[in-house]
Design a protein that fits this description.
This protein is an alpha+beta fold. The chain has three domains: about 20-90, ATP-grasp fold, A domain (Dna Ligase, domain 1), CATH 3.30.1490.20; about 95-220, ATP-grasp fold, B domain (D-amino Acid Aminotransferase, Chain A, domain 1, 2-Layer Sandwich); about 235-380, Succinyl-CoA synthetase domains (Rossmann fold). The protein has 13 helices and 18 strands. The strands form four sheets. Strands 7, 8, 9, 10, 11 and 12 form a six-stranded antiparallel beta sheet that branches. It has a six-stranded mixed beta sheet with strand order 13-15-14-16-17-18, with helices on both faces. α9 links the parallel β14 (about 255) and β15 (about 280). The two termini are about 40 Å apart. The structure holds guanosine-5'-diphosphate and manganese (II) ion.
Length: about 375
Amino acid sequence: MRLYEFEGKEIFSRYSIKIPRGAVASSPEEVEKVIDTVGLPAVLKAQVLVGGRGKAGGIRIARSREEAIKIAREMLGSEIRGVKVKRLLIEEAIKIAREIYLSITIDRSIRKYVILGSLEGGVDIEEIAARKPESIARIYIEPLVGLRSYHVRALSDFMGFSGELASKLGSIVSAIYKIMIDYDADLVEINPLALTEGQDLVALDAKITIDDNALYRHQDLASLLEKDPRDMDEDEVIARKHGFSYVKLEGDVGIMGNGAGLTMASMDLVKLYGGRPASFLDIGGGASRERVKAALTILLRRPDIKSIFINIYGGITRCDEVAMGIVEAIRETGSNKKIFVRLVGTREEEGRKILVENGIRYFTDDNEAALEAVKAASSS
Ligand code: GDP
Ligand code: MN
């Protein structure tokens, strides 16, 4: 999950990293109010999750109220690199003496955190790396040891900072390391970190990405994601909310199973019989009828799916719960897609009865069900 700049800066501020005074606005009227508190000149920044906003016209400076309103009118509703601008962050303009790059990320190949720092900030790190690789400090942190003062000293030495400036840099590095740990982030980046004329360090930008697999530990972030799904597609958001795994694929045979292994084996079966899987959908263990219903509804609503193969091997999962979920999904969507259900295991008799009462055929052999699903997709 990626955080918006203003969300990242809120976190920075809580960890005592200096940020410019500012606030978010989503209409020209709100911009006017923010200008009253922030003052002039002010920087208007499009809150979109794309890099290089500056170059794409997403960062503009206003010297008067009128100019701020004019810029706000132009920017709100426009597109930056294909993403619609709904919000602006308006901040006091900081006088920059030097733009620094600073981040902490994870180097997966060696299983360590790495601090990246450069005096050539402002532009993309990739660009710095390509143009002047020797200008980037890479300082590795063993996670079991954690951040130590020698890491920070190495960075300050590389940057040529000493005294108060070195200690300010140290506080910021400690803060972003703490954010990495506290939020299960895989990247915390400040680019640029402005060195001001008064020898202060101020974070002008914030880029934080959180490991999606850790979101369950951060309910506050998960609820932000629910309100604003960002780059996640709608169905992925539904899946996350209901606790099942869904990956959309290109084919026309929808596949739903319980357990990742069985679901993958079901995809193999469809492939074996010459079909093309349209999904990897694992409802997980002990799925309730609500979860089954939400999951199947995704497949039923997709116009590109021609038939559906459901493969359930009930252990903790109860076949009757699954059957009820299937029936409810079909009823609510009014879909007439062809569905082939292989249903065996816990409470299979009850489950099969529910299916038959609702005119749905069941299979005990998953080879047969997969084959029928493939045939149905290719004949429609
Ligand atoms: P990005 O292009 O999406 O990374 O957006 P940034 O937030 O990094 O801003 C891009 C550039 O705008 C920065 O490198 C600065 O040069 C400039 N900028 C951003 N905020 C300020 C500010 O408060 N004062 C000044 N003078 N320049 C700013
Ligand atoms: Mn930036």
